[in-house]
Write a structure and sequence with these properties.
Layout lengths: L2 E3 L2 H12 L10 H14 L1 H12 L12 H10 L2 H19 L6 E4 L5 E8 L2 E5 L8 H14 L3 E6 L9 H10 L3 E4 L2 H10 L9 E3 L4 H10 L4 E2 L7 E6 L5 H12 L6 E6 L2 H17 L3 H11 E5 L3 H11 L3 E5 L3 H5 L7 E4 L6 H5 L25 E8 L2 H17 L3 H8 L5
Parallel strand pairs: 1-11, 4-5, 4-7, 5-6, 7-8, 9-10, 9-12, 10-11, 12-13
Antiparallel strand pairs: 2-3, 3-14
Length: about 425
């Protein structure tokens, strides 16, 4: 793995390379995605069935697009009982964590008859996209469905691509049932996003779409934003480890590869103040890559976006951490909690040598749907907040309005909005 001295030039080059991985940089796919969206919008079910046959090789129609109770029961019979037990343990942790994020309506009253407040309302219908095909991610099902469930969403509608046999992966179905998805439809890709955004004869239109997917899914979500809400435009996975000479190089190497194996566009970065640690981690990575599966993907990822950066001091290292704003960030230093207070930009922060990144992916409870490509500077992890909306409440008595109506009228007339001014003045005409 390449080792570089951290300088303004190397940091600038790395940031530029990382940004090239953003879905916003893949304009050549947008034309194809937009054509699929417009086709589904116009032809609805017909287009959905056609694309599912073309891309997934499955014969899907109005009679079998919705997963049945019998199919879910069959999935339970096929899933390893040990996996089911783990899913249920993970579910409890995820639900408990998100329960703490719940918000409630509030109202503030004053003696003169003013009532101000905020009404919190869950979204009515949410679409959850779950990848299929070669990828099987029951953990993603839990992470997207459970916060919606905790928020109180009325109807959670999941879509996922079927196999050629028209079936959905059993572990995906079991995770969806356990988490509380209300309906599961056998459709994937940009066509699924279009169906959720505009509705078809079989698939209802939703208020918001969440969930990860390939470049076609990401660009489709970007294209339908405004017709519906979305969580984010997810890019390739990222991990950044900040370490000093107290870190275990074998642990650090293992954690860097935990994200490198996702795909060839993932990134894995170590920033350290120790040159000896840098060399030791590089050696450990070579040993792991030789024996782990996905060897070619790991090698390509490290070649494309794998870096070990040696900083002069911890202040310089932390500044770079905040500039990169990684999706996953581990702190493996002598004083990790002190360092954590100085980290401003990261999707999820893992503290200490026994807080390995897969804890967040599968089990600890915080959501693993995280901002990528530097968007941790202004985006947060998926949460209950993503499935609610807030309405302002305003109620004034005549007495309360009489005290302030002239002030309101003056403000309105300053902006030459006389109808605004008239709306309050008319209530106090002689």
């Amino acid at each position: 793995m390449r080792i570089l001295k951290l300088t303004p030039e190397t940091k600038s080059n790395i940031l530029e390379d990382l940004l090239k991985r953003s879905p916003n940089s893949y304009g050549e796919f947008e034309g194809r995605v937009n054509a699929i969206i417009e086709d589904v919008r116009a032809k609805r079910d017909e287009a959905v069935f056609d694309y599912t046959k073309r891309f997934d090789g499955a014969d899907i129609n109005a009679s079998n697009i919705l997963v049945t109770d019998e199919e879910i029961q069959e999935a339970y019979e096929k899933v390893d009982p040990k996996l089911l037990e783990v899913i249920r343990k993970s579910l409890v942790n995820i639900r408990d964590y998100h329960e703490k994020q719940r918000q409630f309506s509030w109202f503030d009253t004053k003696d003169n008859g003013i009532i101000l407040g905020q009404k919190v309302t869950a979204l009515e219908k949410v679409g959850v996209y779950v990848p299929g095909g070669k990828a099987v991610y029951p953990s993603s099902v839990l992470m997207n469905v459970l916060p919606a469930k905790v928020a109180g969403v009325d109807r959670i509608i999941m879509t996922t691509p079927p196999g050629k046999d028209g079936k959905v992966n059993p572990s995906t179905l079991v995770a969806a049932k356990e988490a509380g998805a209300d309906e599961i439809y056998k459709v994937g890709g940009a066509q699924a996003i279009a169906a959720l955004a505009f509705g078809t004869e079989s698939i209802p239109k939703v208020d918001k779409i969440v969930g990860p997917g390939n470049i076609y899914v990401a660009l489709a979500k970007k294209a339908v934003f405004g017709y519906v809400s979305i969580d984010s435009i997810a890019g390739p996975s990222e991990i950044l480890v900040l370490a000093d000479d107290s870190a275990n190089p074998r642990y650090v190497a293992a954690d860097l590869l935990s994200q490198a194996e996702h795909d060839e566009m993932a990134s894995a970065i170590l920033i350290t103040t120790s040159e000896s640690l840098a060399n030791a981690v590089s050696e450990e990575i070579d040993k792991f890559v030789a024996v782990l599966s996905r060897k070619e993907i790991n090698q390509k990822t490290l070649e494309n976006n794998g870096y070990i950066l040696v900083a002069e001091n911890m202040e310089e290292a932390i500044e770079t951490v905040n500039d990169i704003a990684s999706e996953h960030m581990e702190i493996v230093t002598r004083n990790p909690f002190e360092v954590m207070t100085k980290v401003r930009n990261a999707g999820a922060i893992f503290i200490g040598e026994y807080s390995s990144e897969p804890l967040g992916d599968y089990f600890a409870g915080p959501n693993h749907v995280l901002p990528t490509n530097g968007t941790a500077r202004f985006f947060s992890a998926l949460s209950v907040d993503d499935f609610i909306k807030k309405s302002s409440i305003i109620s004034y008595s005549k007495e309360a309005l009489q005290d302030v109506y002239k002030d309101i009228a003056q403000f309105a007339e300053c902006e030459q909005l006389t109808a605004h001014a008239n709306s309050v003045k008319v209530r106090f005409e002689d």
